[in-house]
């Protein structure tokens, strides 16, 4: 480190990870009790400070890996949060990232190790500092992107039913979708392909299983319903 900029005050830079999962037909968020002061014991997102050798993305990836054990995770920057009084401990600027994971891929022993809980986004408790606002903005980001990007596949298993797919859409948008119109629209999405397999666990009659084909992704320009 050099002696430049010594006349200027210093601030801390951190990342906060907004980790979404989909289970039981609901969009859920991974949160835990804060293990440090200030705010010890309050519900909180999980994050960490950015080291001098890291980019913001590298810091967020490190946090995500430690929490989930997953390396290939959908992650997008939500924005920077810089209110002067957002952290009563020090002057901290935080950059929030949202991530989407398939809950079934998540090692539950890590959740228990960190004391984390999956909570329905519709019934979130008050979170530390401005973390509720971070979540709100992250959901807004997902709702905007769902019209142009098939991000919902990051929340589903490799094989899924159309009912599961519809429930993911509804969970992100926060509203019900007409089943008939939804299935008509899915038929035009060439990157969603039907398999010869049938799901008999969640449907007594047996529901056809589908999968995501990235090779055909360029054939559809919009994902609006």
List the helices and strands and how they pair.
Layout: E1 12-23, E2 26-33, E3 43-44, E4 46-49, H1 56-68, E5 74-81, E6 92-100, H2 108-114, E7 116-120, H3 131-145, H4 162-173, H5 179-187, E8 192-199, E9 207-212
Tell me about this structure.
This protein is of the alpha+beta class and 225 residues long. The chain is 25% helix and 28% strand. The strands form two sheets. Strands 1, 2, 3, 4, 5, 6 and 7 form a seven-stranded mixed sheet that branches. A two-stranded antiparallel sheet has the order 8-9. The termini are far apart.
How many H/I helices? Answer: 5
Query: What profile does the largest beta sheet have?
Result: 7 strands, mixed
Instruction: Please tell me what the overall shape is.
Output: elongated
How many DSSP E strands? 9
User: What portion of residues is helical?
Assistant: 10-25%
H and E string: EEEEHEEHEHHHEE
Which structural class do you get from the secondary structure elements? Answer: alpha+beta
Radius of gyration: 20 Å
The proportion of strand residues reads 25-35%
Instruction: State the separation between the terminal residues, measured CA to CA.
Output: 53 Å
Give start-end ranges of low-pLDDT stretches.
none
Q: What do the pLDDT scores average to?
A: 90
């Amino acid at each position: 480190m050099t002696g430049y900029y010594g006349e200027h005050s210093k601030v801390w830079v951190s990342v906060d990870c907004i980790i979404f999962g989909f289970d039981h037909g609901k969009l859920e968020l991974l949160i835990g009790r804060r293990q440090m002061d200030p705010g010890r014991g309050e519900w909180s997102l999980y994050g960490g400070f950015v080291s001098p050798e890291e980019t913001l993305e590298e810091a967020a990836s490190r946090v995500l890996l430690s929490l989930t054990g997953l390396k290939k995770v959908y992650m997008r920057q939500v924005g920077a949060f810089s209110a002067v009084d957002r952290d009563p401990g020090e002057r901290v600027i935080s950059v929030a990232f949202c991530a989407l994971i398939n809950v079934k891929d998540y090692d539950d022993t890590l959740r228990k190790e960190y004391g984390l809980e999956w909570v329905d986004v519709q019934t979130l408790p008050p979170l530390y500092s401005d973390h509720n606002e971070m979540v709100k903005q992250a959901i807004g980001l997902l709702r905007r992107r769902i019209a142009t990007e098939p991000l919902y596949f990051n929340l589903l298993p490799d094989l899924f039913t159309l009912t599961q797919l519809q429930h993911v859409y509804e969970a992100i948008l926060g509203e019900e979708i007409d089943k008939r119109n939804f299935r008509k629209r899915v038929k035009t999405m060439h990157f969603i392909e039907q398999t010869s397999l049938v799901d008999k666990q969640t449907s007594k009659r047996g529901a056809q299983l589908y999968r995501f084909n990235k090779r055909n992704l360029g054939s559809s320009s919009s994902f609006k319903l």
